[in-house]
Amino acid sequence: MFRPLQPMTVRWRPFEDEGLEHLTLMPLSGPQPGIRILSVVIGARGGTTYGVRYTIDCDPHWTTTSLTLETTTGISLSLVSDGLGHWQDGDGHALPAFDGCIDVDLAGTPFTNTLPIRRLGLRPEDGTRSLDMLYIPFDTFEPLRDAQLYTCLAEDRLYRYEAADRSFTADLPLDADGLVLDYPTLFIRT
Question: pTM of the full predicted structure?
Fold first, then answer.
């Protein structure tokens, strides 16, 4: 079992390119307990540079309830979920194309793999779970639906992430908090 959440700051850098993610994770108490993630990511992907600030709020079980994303060029995106896979944009308009997507996945960070890993709490005997993710690429910032597979290889220590079409696979080592340490070929924890 992962240790109870404590406030923490972690950093990752790209495996080959320049860049950095500086992420702060904190439990929220009070009438609406949960988890808040605040992060700044700078880097490049596919020849495009980016600077992104994001906030993700989750309930105490790591289910995403909101996401705010802002770029250094003035692009912003706000999404809210009821925690059951029903999303709305920042103006309250329903986004039925993402019905059933519980978790978000942001292109330029290894952190968002933590969301389904912590939420599901899989064990090796549980097999592979197929998830529909609300995926946000850092080149367009236009949300997409993305099918992903997660398998626990060693309880609380190693998960396999796969694109549902099997075009990409990565075995993700975790720390005692369930955060990705290194993302093979993409990110290194500093």
Answer: 0.94
